[in-house]
Structure formats: structure tokens, C-alpha cells
Amino acid sequence: MVNPVVLECIIDLFFVLFYIPVLIFYNVKLGLLSLFFVSIFLGFTFYYAPIMRSLAYKVFYKNMITLGEFLDSLLGIRTVKLLSIENYKFRQWKNKYKRALNTVLDSEQKSIMLHSLQRSIFYFSQVSVFWLGAYLTFNNEITIGQYLAVTAIFLVVMNALNNLSMIWNNI
């Protein structure tokens, strides 16, 4: 059974492949600008998705080491007490926990930075298409109807790619 969100993303991707030639048909300049930003957005998405997965695996690994150290001490509490190494085990666990928290913090900082870059590309592409479309409209190279159609189709394309990006990052 297919998740409805995934099904919607597949349908959106199909329409993206259909809408790009339509954008070029309306106006070559706007269509090529749209294609340029679509390729940058997709390229960045496919570039940073493996980085995010790697960071998530690293965080999971560090947390499991910390949990394992804690459970080893907890399950072997009699041995730890008999050997009088409670302070040593506590310091050892505390250092591993500190490293795990630092890894989580580093991962979150990188995640926020990469996500912000992606959102910047998303919004800059919209501003660029809006600006160029308005410029072409004021110079009577396209009509207002073509401008509205291009911007509406471009927004559909970018929102579909943004949804695809969110799903791709969670896979």
C-alpha cells in the first residue's frame, strides 16, 4: 500500500515534467530561468540529503554508545561497587554523554544551515521569476495573462519540488 503523501509527490513529479515545457512555451526567458532554478534546487537537494543521513547516523551511533555505557554500568552495578569504580564509570559515561550531545548539537547546526540554504534558493528563485516576469510585462514582451500563468505554474513546480525534497530527506 502506498502512502498518500508519496502518491501525491509522484503525481506532482509527473506534472513537473509536463509543466517545464509549458513554461518554456509561454516565454523562453522565463522558462529557462525557471529550469535553471529547478535544476539548482534539485541538485542542492540531492547533494545535501546524503550529508543529512550521515549526520543522523552519526548521532544515532553516539547515542547508542552512551546508552550502552550506561546500561553496562547499571547491569553490572554489583561488580562496579565491588571494584569501587563508581566515580570512574560515572566520569567515563559523562564524557561519552558530553561527546554525544556535542555531536547532536553539531548535527543540528549543520541541518539548520543546509535547510536555510535550501529555503534561500527556493525564495530567491521565486523572487527572480517574479521580477523578470514583471520586467518583461512592463516592456510589453509578455502579457499580464502570460505573466500570471507563468508565475502560477512556476509556484506549482517549486512547491512540488519542495515537497519532494522533504520526502527525499526523510527517506
Topology:
Blueprint: H1 4-26, H2 28-75, H3 77-83, H4 86-138, H5 144-170
Structural summary, described in words:
With 171 residues, this protein is mainly alpha-helical. Helices cover 92% and strands 0% of the residues. The chain is built from five helices and no strands. α2 (28-75) runs antiparallel to α4 (86-138) and α2 (28-75) runs parallel beside α5 (144-170). It is elongated and about 85 Å long. The two termini are 17 Å apart. The mean pLDDT is 86.
Structural class: mainly alpha
Instruction: Please state the overall shape, judged from the principal axes of the Cα atoms.
Output: elongated
Average residue pLDDT: 86
What percent of the residues sit in helical stretches (DSSP H or I)?
A: over 70%
Residue share in β-strands = under 5%
Terminal residue distance = 17 Å
Reading the helices and strands in chain order gives HHHHH
Rg estimate, integer Å: 25 Å
Oligomerization status of the protein chains: single chain
What's the story with the biggest beta sheet?
none
Q: Work out the number of β strands.
A: 0
Q: Number of DSSP helices?
A: 5
Unreliable stretches: none
Give a quick summary of the entry:
The chain has 171 residues and is an all-alpha fold.
List keywords for this structure.
171 residues, mainly alpha, elongated
